[in-house]
Each structure stands twice: as C-alpha cells, then as structure tokens.
Amino acid sequence: xxxxxxxxxxxxxxxxxxxxxxxxxxxxxxxxxxxxxxxxxxxxxxxxxxxxxxxxxxxxxxxxxxxxxxxxxxxxxxxxxxxxxxxxxxxxxxxxxxxxxxxxxxxxxxxxxxxxxxxxxxxxxxxxxxxxxxxxxxxxxxxxxxxxxxxxxxxxxxxxxxxxxxxxxxxxxxxxxxxxxxxxxxxxxxxxxxxxxxxxxxxxxxxxxxxxxxxxxxxxxxxxxxxxxxxxxxxxxxxxxxxxxxxxxxxxxxxxxxxxxxxxxxxxxxxxxxxxxxxxxxxxxxxxxxxxxxxxxxxxxxxxxxxxxxxxxxxxxxxxxxxxxxxxxxxxxxxxxxxxxxxxxxxxxxxx
Amino acid sequence: xxxxxxxxxxxxxxxxxxxxxxxxxxxxxxxxxxxxxxxxxxxxxxxxxxxxxxxxxxxxxxxxxxxxxxxxxxxxxxxxxxxxxxxxxxxxxxxxxxxxxxxxxxxxxxxxxxxxxxxxxxxxxxxxxxxxxxxxxxxxxxxxxxxxxxxxxxxxxxxxxxxxxxxxxxxxxxxxxxxxxxxxxxxxxxxxxxxxxxxxxxxxxxxxxxxxxxxxxxxxxxxxxxxxxxxxxxxxxxxxxxxxxxxxxxxxxxxxxx
Lengths: 352, 258
Ligand SMILES: Nc1ncnc2c1ncn2[C@@H]1O[C@H](COP(=O)(O)OP(=O)(O)O)[C@@H](O)[C@H]1O
Ligand SMILES: [Mg+2]
Description:
The complex is a heterodimer of chains A (352) and B (258). Chain A is mainly alpha-helical and 352 residues long. Chain A has helices spanning 3-6, 23-42, 47-69, 72-106, 112-116, 132-163, 166-180, 184-198, 205-230, 233-241, 246-274, 278-283, 302-312, 315-346. Chain A folds into 2 domains: 17-106, no CATH class; 132-345, MetI-like fold. Chain A starts with a helix and ends in a 6-residue tail after the last helix. Chain B starts with a strand and ends in a 5-residue tail after the last helix. Chain B has helices at residues 43-49, 80-86, 102-113, 118-131, 135-138, 151-164, 181-194, 207-213, 237-242, 247-253, and strands at residues 5-14, 17-27, 32-36, 60-68, 71-72, 87-90, 169-173, 199-203, 216-222, 229-236. The longest helix of chain B has 14 residues, at 118-131. Chain B is an alpha/beta fold and 258 residues long. In chain B, α3 runs parallel beside α6, α4 packs across α6 and α6 packs parallel to α7 (181-194). The complex binds adenosine-5'-diphosphate and magnesium ion. The site of magnesium ion has 2 residues of chain B, from α1.
C-alpha cells in the first residue's frame, strides 16, 4: 500500500497530492524565524551563523514535509530547487554587501566638487580634493588601450575563425591562451623593461595603456572568436554563392550578424582592465595633479587613487578612497549596461 | 542568358576521401535537370562543384572539367568568385541574412558586389521578387526583417536573392525539403517559370517532384558506404521513370532500395 492511495486527494493515478505554491515561502520564513530563535537562545551573534542554520533548516524542512505529503521523488526535486536557491543567495550576499558598504561609505564625499577637482593643493590628511585627475587618467589610458586592442583582437579572431588553418593558427591560439593567463604585474614589468628601461622613456599614460593592451587583447580575441563561431556557416555560403568575395562576406555578413556579441565582449574587456592597478602603478606612477597628456609625465588612475588614498591612512583619505571606489564601480556597471543594451539593439531581428 | 553545362571526368574529394568519381554529363540551357539517388551518394557534392562552392569546404578538391558554354570553370586563371556570379545557388534550408530586411536581402548580391546604380536597385528588387512569386506577399513589408517571413516565403526570398544577380544557371539543393506541401507547390510552379530564363539543376529526394518539374533526370548511386558516388544514368525524365536502361535505377524508383 503506497502512501498516495491513502490520501483522499489523489483520485487519479496521474494526480498526486501537491503542496500549495506558497509552501517554499512558508518553509523559508519558518526557517529564518527558527534560525534567529536558535541563535538567540544559544547566544550566537554572527548573522552568518543564523543564516546558515536557516539554510540547513530550509533544505531539510522542504525535504521532510514534501516527502510526507508529496512523495520521495517530489521531495528530491524540492531539495534540488532549494539548494539552487541557497547557493544563489550565498553568491548574492557578498556582492550585495559589497555594494551596500561601498555606497554607504562612498556617498559621504561624492559630489560635483569631488568629481571636478584634483588633489593638487590638498594634503592627504585633510578633507577636500577630488578625483578629476584620476577619472581623466583612467579614461585616457583605458581609451588608448581599447583603441589598440580592439582592431588587433578582432582581426586576430577573424583570422582564427575565417582563415586560420594549420600550424600558424594553432600557434596563435596557443599564444592567446598563454596571454590570457599573464598576471597583470608581469604585463606591467614587461612593458617597464621594454619601454622604460630599454627605450629609456619616462612614465606616462601610454606606457600603462601598452600593459593594459597585453591584458585586453586575449580577452577580445577569445570573446570575438566565440561570437564569430556562432554565425551559421549557411550565411557565409549564401553570400559566397552570390559571388561575393570572402573579405566582403566577412565585412558585410559575418561581422554585422555578430556585432552585438563582439561589442559586448569588448565592453566586458574594458570593464576588466579599468580596475587594473599593478601595471598602472609601475608605469604611470600616479600624481596629485591634473595631467591631460597621456604621452608624457605621470598620470593618475582610479584604482591607483584608491590604493594611494587608502595607504595615506587618514579618515578624510579613507572617505575619498571609498568615494573613488563607488565611482569606479558605477563606471563599470554603466559599461556593462551599455554592453547589454547594444547587444539587444544589434541582435538579429526576427519580428514581423 | 542561360548557358549549357558540360561536365567530363569530374572527381571531387574531401581531403583524401573520393566522394564522387568520374562524372560526365551535359545539361541543356533552359531546362530543368533533377538529381536523384540515395543519401550520401554525392548529389550535393556534385552540385557544389558546378559553382566552385565545393572548395569552400576545408579539404575540398576537384579535378576534371566543367564547361560553361565554352569556358572551363576549373581552367587556369578562372576566378571562383566570378563563377559564382554566373552560377547561382539555393540551399536546402532557407538562409536569408538575419540582419537585413526583405529588400536588403534581395539587393544583397548587387550591393555586396558593389556594382549597381541606386536608381536601378528598386527595379531589380521588384523584378526579382516578382520572379520569385513573392512580390504580392511582401510588397508592404519590404523593410521588415527577412527572417520574419514563413519558411516557404523565406525560401522564395532566397530564390529572389539568387536571381537578382542575373546568373546563367541556378542550382538548387533540395530546396523544398524543409517546406510544407503548399510552399513546395509554389516553388515547383516557380521552377517551371524560371526555366524560361535559366538553366536549372535541382537535387531532390522526392521522386514525384523530380517527375513533375524536370525535363531530364540523373540517377546517382554508390556501391557501398565509403565508396565514391557515381552517375548511373541520365536521360529524359519520362524515360527514367517509365523505362530506365539500368536495373539499379528501376529498383530505386520503384522503392526497392534507397
Ligand atoms: N564536409 C564534408 N566533409 C567530409 N565528407 C563529406 C562532407 N560533406 C559530405 N561528405 C561525404 O561525401 C559523401 C557525399 O555526400 P553528399 O554530397 O552530401 O551526399 P547527398 O547530397 O547525395 O546526400 C558522403 O559520403 C558524405 O559523408
Ligand atoms: Mg545532400
């Protein structure tokens, strides 16, 4: 005699007893309350502890109740679903707390004045000053790096996907893989030895851009390669069969079809290098003054500003570091949103 | 503008694998020739050697002669890109360019080749769409994406795109196999009209279709899997379907294998 035949609810063999929609929410609520209760009773103070207790209670509770009412298969299903939710929340907690903390600390001094002034006449231990010079530096260094990396990266990817056969293509793929793994400090040291020590150039924004290129190119190549591979071969053949030369097919059919994805990849690569500190520290040096010329003399950049302000160690400097961090995060988020927007806007259309 | 195709001693390889062996045949201008035969016997491969698309496949290699009127497509100094402008192709699955509108799809061949006058473009697009029996269905949505059309309409759009560049020969690789019966009929009717202007070669899995649309039928076969495909016979469609001269053809047509 199985459990299901005993419950009056199950009239047909296809319709088992089901728990209502709100069941998971109820269990979740109950677990949280119980978790809070237990940790209060046991005198635990950390919120991590009650959250973990609640998570365990939630998974076990869903399984237990569901196994009784719905059957073991449904219960397993619910456990899997609960685990996914718990994992999701666990991943979300550090992210949200990071954003929360940055916003809370960052808004203190973040205003128009902060965004439009440099640290030129402000001592690190005093309040005031701003990040204008750092924003300018970051924009110029990242802009230059993007300007060099995108053509090189996209053309390399086109070579690999559309033309590359045999040894050379394999070698290029191998080196791109190797480049993906280069730590940023090594890229910085490489440019330092070449540009500063051998060619005897001084620190400048563009030296930093070169190092950022080394980090950005492999990312652009990889993402562009994936996007080009997604273009169905049938489209290339359709174009070739019309008597269109291969280079024109790539330019007019393959690239427009994948441009959304390529732009997204580039934006993500930009977001990645915007936060790089090590090569900038080695090659751009940093300054408290506004230097709009990326080809000569030290510049500032946002990550370096954060690092230097944090090292300064005074309370006003901490506040400025947080505000700069908030600016950096906002900048990267805007880039990501823009990437999504472009991807959606440029996606091949299917509507009527 | 239609031209005669004269193939002799043609072999096609995928790397070292010989896919079709020693094919010789003649295709008359302004006629429809159907290729039939079991799967894997090399019909598509042979078709693609006729506009030098075979060599687009990595490892694809051809030897032998394909004369288009009096020019050998595989002769020295022949530009495959120019060949493909003369010999158009329609594929098994409709493949309109997804980023382009209906209008741009039809205009693609001219535009991408960079040889057109803006004022002529409208005329060419309308003429090609009329030629593909699609004009009335799409004339109000020329600027909508081509991928928003139904499967049958998309395939006719691809035919319009192929005939817009005024080729001499039109190759079709199972153009109806992804379509419903009504769209299939529409395309068969269209083939009947197009043969006034073009030399048409069509691969089909559907014996009735071969019988309905073609003047000549070629039967391909292969001895065994891994063996090269061969042309068994080519003859007037009526003869192939009533009184073929080779036993294997009769077996295939009457459904005894394949
Ligand atoms: N891209 C390819 N690479 C290697 N072999 C192929 C390729 N395309 C087709 N072939 C082989 O060539 C033979 C003929 O294929 P195909 O011309 O597609 O036959 P059909 O169109 O008559 O079904 C088959 O044995 C097939 O496996
Ligand atoms: Mg085929």
